[in-house]
Amino acid sequence: MTGEAVSFSLSGGELTIRDEAGGGGITIEIDDGSSITPATDAWFDVPVDDAVSLETSDIDFRAGGSAQFRGIDGEHYGSLGEGEFSIEGETYIDFTAGMKILTYVDGEMTGRLVGDEKDPDSLLVTFEEPTRVVVGARSYHDEPIATMTVTDEPEDLMTAASYLGSSIKEWSAERSWPTLRGHPPAIEIGDELHVPDELSQPDTGVTVAVPRNVADVIRITPLAHYFGADIVPGELAELRLGPSYAEPLGTGAELEQSVDELLAHAIVLDSLVRIDGYYSLPRYEYDELAPELPFYPPELYDEPIHRQLLEYLEVPFETVLPYAPRWNAVGTLRPRVEDIETVPYLLNSLSRVHVTDDGLPRQSSGHGNPVNLSTSTDVPRNTAAFLPSARERAARHEKDISSESSVLFVGTKRPEPDAFAATDWTRFHVEEAPTADYRAAVDRAELRSLLAEPYTHVHFGGRTTNTGFVCDDGVLAFDEFPDGTVGSISFSWGQPSSAELGGVLDTASVACLTDERLSIEAAQELAVYLVLGRSVASSASLAGIDGVRYLGDALLPAAMRPVGYGPVPFHIERAERDEFRISTAFDTNEHELIGRVSESRIEQTSDQYYLSGNRIRIPESFTADELAEVLQTDGIFRFDWRASSEQSAVLPELDDLLPE
Q: How far apart are CA 267 and CA 425, in angstroms?
């Protein structure tokens, strides 16, 4: 049975749930002989795309995700750790993997971690007798629910901006969860203003006044979306809360900073207020920050947004700043009405929105810092040319399943040793090893045929010209590239302008453009991270590739593991000869980062959850034996005492990594 976003199918004792909107899927094991029937979403307290009812005596979640247990009154029973648990009464099993899986159970159940070397974190839930349960699923992939039309009049842009919050699924602090915000309605340029009837303007008591110019209207769109603000003309930009409070926001770059800080301020504090809601998870930021606040966060849960913001603004931003997540992307647009068409896509991942005359960032982000998405074709390093064709391609992007992924290396023979094939994929919850093809030489027709294949990633290691790839019999021009479904492609491109590369987006969703030709070792490492579900930008960063530009949304991952996100990077420092310190950035889903929480599976850490995007330094030091255990976990490791070209390791061997 199939909904628009997810589908359910049953074969024997395996219930397969497919993400029809975003690609991928997971399989859970139930009693052989069970049957499924459609169910209503009224069984659940959070949105699901579709649901089925079934009867079984046990459920085995074998996707390597994370599970939470909570009562229907919101009480949090905790996450699954070592040992068994027993719960009685109406309960939700909240399972996060490649999508959100919610299982409603009314009865007594026990559970424990089971598994084998391939899947050590499998969750087995058992019932005393065959029990009726309801399984619901929600895709993490969103599309605009409608399209608004605007003219080049600033007032029309203000009207459209006032409807950007119509995609928010719940006007409480819960909207700080990324999957409860939804994709804002699309915007296109036309001859007259039109707002479809199915869109409704939020009534949140928040108003943003802004001068009548395109640049400033674009700058305040994140507030319009997240606060459901009514956007009105004003002499100066200001935030108005209720009938009597106004907060000046400044102009130009100052206005951008005000918007950025307001958004970060609200995300952090909303994530504390929502502890009184669906998920009462133990939070690091709550324990650290709540004692410094002039209010008790749970008491604000049922207050309207404008009242919450009045309380938030009593807290200096400097107090909140240490706990604010790092934004993974900044969209830099031009002060042109056509650039507002890009805004809804940026807001879908809550990217920051800036404006400059040429669409170039005021300061290029450094290696490993937030990626700039620019509407210019001439971009500096660590910046993505995010043109209309790139936006359209990103909206159609579907991630491959890691175990079914394939990569292609052109311009090299299969190396010995083959680092890609030697990767321990099972450590990363990838049951079947992805495949890799190597072509030392190709002609134009052969390369064109290869690019039409559904590779997860293609690396072209040969020479390029201004017009295309150099093959044995000439140049395959970019405008001769085939229509294809390649996830990402990498090749050397020493020019700042991407204007000549239009045909690349006919073939691949994202292009990674390196200043110099990569060694096969660097190209293989890049491909490993991509297959493991890291984004194109973070994969290049983890592989130590400097001098890189992008064509397309560099935050897109080319593949997806069953758990739904790429492995987390860990930074390991040498404290003493036999003591080490570990830090990590919890960025478990780069394209939907802001508002998520994550936990570390390292034994020495507490059982707290952290706001994704924050870098956490584990206070305790690790012995060599303890570090050896950590290196077996699902992570990517960087060893800060090693040379920059050797810092990263996908296949850590302790004897090779310890300092002399």
A: 35
Between CA 456 and CA 159 the distance in angstroms is 41
pLDDT at 435 over 90: yes
Nearest CA-CA partner of 326 in 297, 369, 377, 285: 369
What does residue 59 show for φ and ψ, rounded to 5 degrees? -135, 130
Token readout for 508 is 């691949």
SS3 28: strand
Mean pLDDT of 366-390: 86
pLDDT of residue 104: 93
- pLDDT band at residue 650 using 50, 70 and 90 as cut-offs: low
pLDDT at 63: 62
Architecture of domain 374-560: 3-Layer(aba) Sandwich (3.40)
What local confidence, expressed as pLDDT, does residue 116 receive? Answer: 47
Domain limits, the chain: 6-138, 147-359, 374-560, 568-657
42 by Cβ neighbours in 10 Å (0-12 / 13-18 / 19+) ranks as exposed
* Rounded CA separation 279/282 (Å): 9
User: Between 305-312 and 252-273, two packed helices, what is the crossing angle to 10 degrees?
Assistant: 110
pLDDT of residue 659: 40
Residue 358: count of CB within 10 angstroms of its CB: 12
Q: Which amino acid is at 552?
A: G
Residue 231's SS3 state is strand
Name the pTM for this structure.
Answer: 0.88
User: Tens digits of per-residue pLDDT, 309-348?
Assistant: 999 999 999 999 999 998 889 999 999 999 999 999 999 9
Q: How far is the CA of 357 from the CAs of 150, 252, 255, 278, in angstroms?
A: 21, 11, 15, 44
Residue 12: count other Cβ atoms within 10 Å of its Cβ.
11
